[in-house]
Design goal:
single chain, 221 residues, alpha/beta, 6-stranded parallel β-sheet, two-stranded antiparallel sheet, 9 helices, 8 strands, 41% helix, elongated
């Protein structure tokens, strides 16, 4: 095994390893249209995602239609539709799979931590990255979502490493807050749905243009 600067890498899913925005947008728009609400362009959804399905739907609803009853109805319709339409347009970003395999071959433990619902996170990880990840966690009942770092600590404990031995990579401000508050080395993914300025303002230790650059950070030269 090669010498490592970091023994584990924890990755966000949406906008970091998978380009999921079109399937998410189509699914929310389906739920909005079914309930008689205006739709949004795909690009708008990049500003809605990152904080879990409930907050995604809340952001997509008109401001005067965000009562609990309406939210629950649209969220249910979205969740049911997305469950069977999550991989229509979704695809991994370039070099993601090759880079993950290189890290895994070097002895790095790999995990996904997403605010996407747990079952959907596991389904997509298995579909696009079968056998690559050592742990996959989405939003679960009874567990806080990002930016709470509790699941980062859980993953580190599961892997038998300290948080300081983990690198955390994501594309949104919520990811940077999660990584920094946990004490992990925090990497911003500029190719995702966020923006460089927001990543830096929220504590990114470094910004990468391509996932392949992470090998130079994690694996000692």
């Amino acid at each position: 095994m090669k010498e490592l600067n970091y023994k584990a890498v924890i990755l966000d899913m949406d906008g970091t390893i998978l380009d999921t925005i079109t399937d998410i947008a189509v699914s929310v728009n389906y739920a909005l249209e079914k309930n008689g609400f205006p739709l949004h362009n795909i690009s708008e959804y990049k500003t809605f995602i990152g904080n879990g399905a409930r907050n995604l739907v809340l952001a997509a609803l008109p401001q005067d239609k965000r009562d609990d009853g309406t939210l629950e109805k649209v969220l249910k319709d979205y969740s049911e539709y997305y469950a069977t339409h999550s991989s229509v347009f979704t695809e991994p970003y370039p070099k993601i799979k090759e880079t993950l395999l290189e890290l895994k071959g070097a002895g790095v433990k790999l995990a996904v931590f997403s605010n996407k619902p747990h079952k959907a996170t596991q389904k997509l990880a298995e579909l696009y990255f079968e056998g690559i990840f050592d742990a996959v966690y989405g939003a679960r009942d009874g567990y806080p979502i990002k930016p709470d770092p509790a699941v980062v600590f859980e993953i580190a404990e599961e892997f038998g490493v300290s948080v300081e031995e983990c690198a955390y990579i994501g594309d949104m401000c919520v990811d940077m807050k999660t990584g920094k508050s946990s004490g992990a080395y925090t990497i911003g993914a500029e190719w995702g749905f966020g923006d460089k300025e927001g990543l830096l303002e929220n504590g990114a230790d470094v910004i990468l243009d391509s996932i392949s650059e992470i090998c130079d950070i994690v694996i000692k030269g």
